[in-house]
């Protein structure tokens, strides 16, 4: 192997600036998409339990269809296929205001919303029905039973798989480079293009992701331990 | 909206893109099937290594899993894409790059599933096998793994579906899978809505039938 390392490419020129910008974009994209995903997850998770059938079907369709199609396809779909359907002025506005970033946010948020929905549903499903019946028996209304008994327990059960899924979202934000959002992976590639030093650039990008993921996982592991319910330690939700 | 673009390019999208028969080396299935088989095989090794008593086996295996679970797949694909030609001093086709990246990456996830599966087998089973005079290898092969495999089915299929979807990322380095095939057609026809919706449906049919199959399998083995 005749490769000459030149680590200084990472701090000379614009590399450092690009990496920092990429990191900020990755965090912004992930945070916005996460909010969207959690909102959609809660909404569709709740709708899948209501007695009105068409709503239930719509929610099930959303979850099954969106989580079973690759994120990359959704990126292309929201970026290339949806804007041309908008009226002309709206199209111009979108393309003048960072269309790729918003397309990526929607793609990531809608895709992970479907996956979050499964996490939330299995969290609520893991609580024995008797808990609800006991709450009603001691005189709580349905709303109170959910607010005071079911949801506090469900939220604590959701912490581990929810963390897992949030980290998946963060890592998946790298797919946004395909529609040229200047996030971390994109900037890593840019450094490689400008300096022809692939190993150095990839090492820098990889380490940033690794530090980000490991530190979030470490913090959440403490949160998890703090909120774990004795006797209900089993992890719920899909494995991946 | 005009779906005739799909009908006109149906052969290219399905034969070349999904299956891999055509002028290009490509195909989602041609990449996904070996990636699943090899990834799972390496995953068994990684999962068992994580449970090994010897530290020098357990620690590297744990680091392997933690590393690949903390890095995006796109990053791993780029690594393989740049590193292998440097190391071997010869160009590697996209197929080789993509397959290597998927096997290495997914083995970390399969490894965790195997580990959880093995740990879910009751301790008494191992003790009973030992009492019968079985060696450690025999116990693992004939007693623990068959039962572990049965417990793993649901998460295993979930991971296979994830891998199947992930193969679309091979299009980033130019491998002609279903996603790339749609991109190629779209460059000529400029019909993104119809084309991307169509491949979304094709992906959905593949993955959803995998999960239906898994549900049946679960009921039979449970």
Written overview of the protein:
The complex is a heterodimer of chains A (240) and B (222). Chain A has 240 residues and is mainly α. Chain A has one domain (7-227): MetI-like (MetI-like fold). Chain A is built from nine helices and no strands. Chain A has helices at residues 15-47, 53-67, 71-81, 88-96, 99-125, 129-137, 142-172, 184-195, 198-227. Chain A is flat. Chain A starts with 14 loop residues before the first helix and ends in a 13-residue tail after the last helix. Chain B is 80% helix and 0% strand. Chain B starts with a helix and ends with a helix. Chain B is an all-alpha fold. Chain B has a single domain, classed as MetI-like fold. The mean pLDDT of chain B is 92.
Strand content of chain A: under 5%
* Count of separate structural domains of chain B: 1
In percent, how much strand structure appears in the residues of chain B?
A: under 5%
CATH class identity of chain B = Mainly Alpha
Shape annotation of chain B: globular
Rg measurement of chain B, Å: 21 Å
The CATH topology of chain A = MetI-like fold
Which fold does the CATH topology of chain B refer to? MetI-like fold
Could you list the spans of chain B in which at least 5 consecutive residues all have pLDDT below 50?
none
* Major pleated sheet of chain A: none
CATH class of chain A: Mainly Alpha
Quickly count the helices of chain A. 9
The second-level CATH architecture of chain A is Orthogonal Bundle
């Amino acid at each position: 192997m005749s490769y000459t390392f030149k680590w200084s490419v990472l701090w000379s020129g614009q590399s450092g600036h690009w990496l920092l910008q990429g990191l900020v974009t990755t965090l912004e994209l992930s945070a916005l998409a996460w909010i969207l995903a959690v909102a959609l997850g809660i909404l569709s998770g709740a709708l899948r339990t209501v007695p009105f059938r068409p709503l239930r079907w719509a929610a099930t369709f959303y979850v099954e269809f969106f989580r079973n199609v690759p994120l990359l396809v959704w990126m292309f779909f929201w970026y290339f296929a949806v804007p041309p359907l908008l009226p002309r002025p709206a199209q111009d506005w979108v393309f003048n205001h960072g269309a790729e970033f918003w397309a990526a946010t929607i793609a990531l948020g809608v895709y992970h919303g479907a996956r979050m929905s499964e996490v939330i549903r299995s969290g609520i499903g893991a609580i024995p029905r008797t808990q609800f019946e006991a709450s009603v028996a001691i005189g709580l209304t349905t709303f109170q039973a959910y607010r005071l008994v079911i949801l506090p327990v469900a939220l604590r059960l959701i912490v581990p798989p929810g963390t897992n899924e949030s980290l998946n979202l963060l890592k998946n934000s790298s797919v946004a480079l395909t529609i040229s959002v200047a996030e971390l992976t994109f900037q890593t590639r840019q450094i490689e293009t400008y300096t022809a030093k692939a190993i150095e650039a990839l090492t820098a990008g990889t380490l940033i992701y690794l530090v980000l993921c490991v530190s979030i996982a470490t913090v959440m592991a403490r949160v998890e331990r703090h909120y774990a319910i004795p006797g209900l330690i089993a992890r719920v939700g899909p494995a991946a | 909206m005009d779906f005739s673009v799909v009908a006109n390019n149906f052969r290219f999208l399905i034969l070349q893109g999904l299956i891999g028969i055509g002028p290009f080396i490509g195909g989602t299935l041609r990449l996904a099937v070996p990636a699943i088989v090899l990834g799972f095989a390496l995953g068994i090794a990684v999962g068992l290594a994580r449970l090994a008593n010897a530290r020098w086996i357990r620690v590297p295996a744990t680091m392997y899993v933690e590393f690949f679970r903390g890095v995006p797949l796109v990053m791993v694909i780029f690594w393989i894409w740049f590193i292998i030609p440097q190391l071997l001093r010869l160009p590697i086709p996209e197929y080789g790059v993509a397959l290597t990246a998927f096997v290495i990456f997914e083995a970390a996830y399969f490894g965790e599933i195997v580990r959880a599966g093995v740990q879910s087998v009751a301790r008494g089973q191992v003790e009973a096998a030992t009492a019968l005079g079985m060696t450690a290898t025999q116990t693992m092969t004939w007693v623990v793994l068959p039962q572990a495999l049965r417990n793993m089915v649901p998460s295993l299929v979930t991971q296979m579906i994830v891998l199947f979807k992930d193969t679309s990322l091979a299009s980033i380095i130019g491998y002609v899978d279903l996603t790339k095939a749609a991109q190629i057609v779209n460059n000529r026809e400029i019909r993104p809505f119809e084309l991307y919706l169509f491949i979304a449906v094709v992906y959905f049919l593949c993955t959803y039938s995998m999960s239906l199959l898994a549900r049946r399998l679960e009921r039979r083995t449970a």
